[in-house]
Amino acid sequence: MAVLNVNPTRMELKRLKNRLKTAQRGHKLLKDKTDEMIRRFIVIARENKRLRREIEKELGGALENFMRARAMTAPQIIDEAVMMPSRKISLECGKKTVMGVAVPDISLGDDNNSELYPYSFLTVTDELDNSVKTLNLLLAKLIELAEVEKSCNLLADEIEKNKRRVNALENIMIPQMEETIKYITMKLDENERASLVRLMKVKDIIAH
Amino acid sequence: MYNRVGVIGDKDAVLAFKSVGFEVFDASDAQGAAALIKKLSGEDFAVLFISEELAAQIPDVIKKAKQRIYPVITAIPTSKEGGGYGMAQIKKDVEKAIGADII
Question: Which tens digits make up the pLDDT trace of B69-97?
C-alpha cells in the first residue's frame, strides 16, 4: 500500500491520526447503515415480489378478456363504452424516507362513486364486464406495486453506493493512513536517534 | 402535484384501463413509447404503467427514469403469456443490493 505524499513532521502525524479516527468512525457508521438498509430492502423486495406475482396472475387475464371483448364487438362501441369513465382516481402523493432515501408514498384516495361500469350492459359482452371488474379490484394493488417497486429501485441504488463508500474506506483510505502514520513515526524516531548519536560524538570530541 | 395515472401500451390491450380512470396512451413501437415517456415525465403523472414488451425494448429510458422519484414507471404484463420481465427486474435489484438473489 502506497504511503501518502506528506512531510514526516509531528504536525502531519497529529493531523493524520485525527483523520484516521474520523475515517474509522465513518466506516463503522456506514457499515451499520448498509446493514439496516439491506434489512429493510429485503422486506420491501419480498413485498414487491408478492404483489407482482399476484398482479401478473390476474392482470394478463383481464386484459386478454378485454381484447376478446374488443374483437367480438364493434370497436366503436367498446371505445364509447370506456371513453367516459364513471370513476376518477384521486391520488395522494408524497415522499417518505427509508434510511435517508426519499421514496414515493402514494395512497389511493376514496372515490365516492360506487358505479363500476361506465356503460350500458345492453351493447357489450360480459368479457368486458369481467375485465373491468378485475381491473377495479386490481387498482389499489397496481398503485401499491408502483410505489413498492420504486422504493425497491431507489433503495437498491443507495445500497450499492453505500457499499462502494464502505469498501473505499475499508480497503483504501484506512490502510493508507495507517501506513503513513507508521512511516512518519519511524522517520521521527530515526531522526531522534541520529541526533542522539551526533551529540554523543560531539561530546567525545570535546572530551579529548 | 402529482395525481394522474397513465398507461402506455398497445391500444387494444390498455384501453381497458380507461374504464377505471387511468389515462391511456397508445404506443405500438419503442420510439413512440420512448417519446411518450419523455413527454409525460414533464407532466404531473404520479404513476406511468407501461406494457412489458415495450419496456423491454427501451432499457435506456427506463434506467434513466429509475433515478427520479416521480413519475414512477412500472412495467405490467398485458397478455396472459406475459411476465418474466418484471420479475427479472426485481431479481436484478436484489442482486445489485445484496450480491445474490436470495429472495
Answer: 878 888 888 776 666 788 888 888 888 88
Asked if residue B38 belongs to a domain, the reply is yes
pTM: 0.82
Here the CATH number for the domain that contains residue B47 is 3.40.50.10580
Our count of domains for chain A comes to 1
Q: Do B76 and A55 touch (CB under 8 A)?
A: yes
Q: What ipTM was predicted for this assembly?
A: 0.87
The residue ranking higher by pLDDT, A154 or A123, is A154
d(CA A130, CA A61): 10
Which residues of chain A have a CB within 8 Å of the CB of B18? Answer: 82-83, 85
Cβ atoms of A184 and A13 closer than 8 Å: yes
Sort residue B21 into left (φ over 0), alpha (ψ -120 to 50) or beta. left
41-100 in chain A: CB under 8 A from chain B: 41-42, 45-46, 48-49, 52-53, 55-56, 59-64, 66-67, 70, 78-79, 81-83, 85, 87-91, 93, 95
Residue A121 clears pLDDT 80, i.e. is over it: no
Domain that holds residue B48: 4-98
Q: ω before B71 within 30° of 0 (cis)?
A: yes
Judged against a pLDDT cut of 60, whether residue A112 lies above it is answered with no
**What's the pLDDT at B67?**
79
Count how many residues are written for chain A: 208
Cβ contact B72–A131 (<8 Å): no
